[in-house]
Amino acid sequence: MVTSEDIKKIKENTEEFFQKMTINAVIEIKTAILELEDILKDEKNKKEQNRDVVEMSVKVDDPQIMIGEKGQTLIEVQRILKMFLNKRMLRDFYLNLDINDYKKKKMEYLKALAKDLADEVASSKEPKILSPMSSFERRIIHDELSSRTDVKTESEGQEPYRRVVIKIR
């Protein structure tokens, strides 16, 4: 379990990480424990019962540099920061990094898009094919529409062109 002392160390190390990148950052950290199956769908990893999650919100002056096109730089910064922190902390945890609420806003947008397109599919009976998306983005669409009884979602295609199709049920 991530303790308050761990959070303090994570914050200090994260501040150092961004300082070394010469980026002025304001860091806010929250923790949670999630069932591992909520994070990883991989059968071999389901042996573990749960996993510590560190939710990190970072505010920077020029977020586009840290977010990149379609959030690709953010994904890589998250991966590198997680490796850096795990090595410094000598423990493993799941890191969810958000810069200037990019992921939060993206999730809200994708959920609204999913609802709107599902309503169109339900009324027109014609499937809607979305643009290629990352697995993170596709999962948001699938999760948002999973409780609907009038439409269903499927992913099709190969990475990096994999996309969600919304169809009538």
Detailed description of the structure:
α1 (4-20) packs across α4 (72-89) and α5 crosses α6. Strands 1-2-3 form a three-stranded mixed β-sheet, sandwiched between helices. A three-stranded antiparallel β-sheet has the order 4-6-5. Mean pLDDT is 88; it is low at 35-48. It has 169 residues and is α+β, with helices and mostly antiparallel strands. The protein has helices at residues 4-20, 36-39, 63-67, 72-89, 102-124, 135-145, and strands at 25-35, 50-60, 94-99, 128-129, 151-156, 163-168. The chain has two domains: 4-100, K homology (KH) domain (GMP Synthetase, Chain A, domain 3, 2-Layer Sandwich), CATH 3.30.300.20; 104-168, Ribosomal Protein S8, Chain: A, domain 1. The radius of gyration is 18 Å and the shape is elongated. The longest helix is centred in the C-terminal third of the chain and has 23 residues, at 102-124. The chain contains six helices and six strands. β5 (151-156) and β6 (163-168) form a beta hairpin. 46% of the residues lie in helices and 25% in strands.
Care to give the gist of this entry?
This protein has 169 residues and is an alpha+beta fold. It is built from six helices and six strands, in the order H-E-H-E-H-H-E-H-E-H-E-E.
Task: Based on the model shown, name its key terms.
alpha+beta, elongated, 2 domains, three-stranded mixed sheet, about 170 residues, Ribosomal Protein S8, Chain: A, domain 1, three-stranded antiparallel sheet
Taken in chain order, the helices and strands follow as: HEHEHHEHEHEE
> If you average the pLDDT, what whole number results?
88
Beta-strand content? 15-25%
Global structural class: alpha+beta
* Number of separate strands: 6
CATH superfamily of the largest domain: K homology (KH) domain
